[in-house]
Amino acid sequence: MNKDRIRKLIRYILAEASQDEDWRFRELGPIHILKYVYLADMYFAARNQGQTYTGLQWRFHHYGPWSPELYQEIPDAVKAMGGDIRSFESQYGKDAYRFSLKDDSQEDLSSTVPTSVAFLLRRDIQNYGAATHDLLHYVYTTVPITHAVPGDQLDFTLVVPHPEPETINSSPRLSAREKKKRKQHIKDIRAKIAEKKEQRRKKRVRPTPPRYDEVFFGGVEELDKDFDLPPMENHDGVLSVDKSAWGDDWRKNHDLS
What we know:
The protein is mainly alpha-helical and 257 residues long. It has a domain at 3-161. It is 46% helix and 7% strand. It has helices at residues 3-17, 30-47, 68-80, 115-128, 132-140, 143-146, 176-203, 214-226, 250-253; strands at residues 59-61, 64-66, 84-89, 95-100. The protein has a two-stranded antiparallel sheet. A two-stranded antiparallel sheet has the order 3-4. The longest helix is centred in the last third of the chain and has 28 residues, at 176-203. It is extended and about 70 Å long.
């Protein structure tokens, strides 16, 4: 792994998080930093034939990407950059940690990481920040994850775009008049779509909310009399899913977001 690049990424991630308007989201936990570094590697790989920026070996662990080397490196990296580390007891009775930077809200670190990576990471951090559930949902539906099963090493070549052979260097040059006509055509299509959306909005019927009155509860009582069923019993146990389910095509071919 490239420790220098990893530390630059962590610093950039924390610097972006420090600009959140809500001070509660200016701190990130190890899980947030780890997932953002994964996203940075994925974005870099899409432009570099599947090669990651950090050189980390990512694996599918539990439900998503994991790197024990990165997890161990995070506290040392934050200390080296003079960041803050706050510890507290989690709901599971273990020590939890939050990391942040000091007085870096105005510092622009975008030049320390590749431009394409910095731009996309900034978007993600602004969208998800320290919102663990939303961030994990986004990460778990990325291509390297949906094409792997627990224990696999993640394949970042899957995110490299592969244009159709006939489209490579075959786009004809358009004249100024043709470009103008194409732009107008696109505007017309957008106007039609907007008009249809507005028509559907006007036609939308708002359902009448149900009335929970004597008639309602009386009807429920009568229905219960007609169905003489035994009461449902509670059962304790463990539900397990066969490992073959991870390899089904529905994970690869469907938009899970």
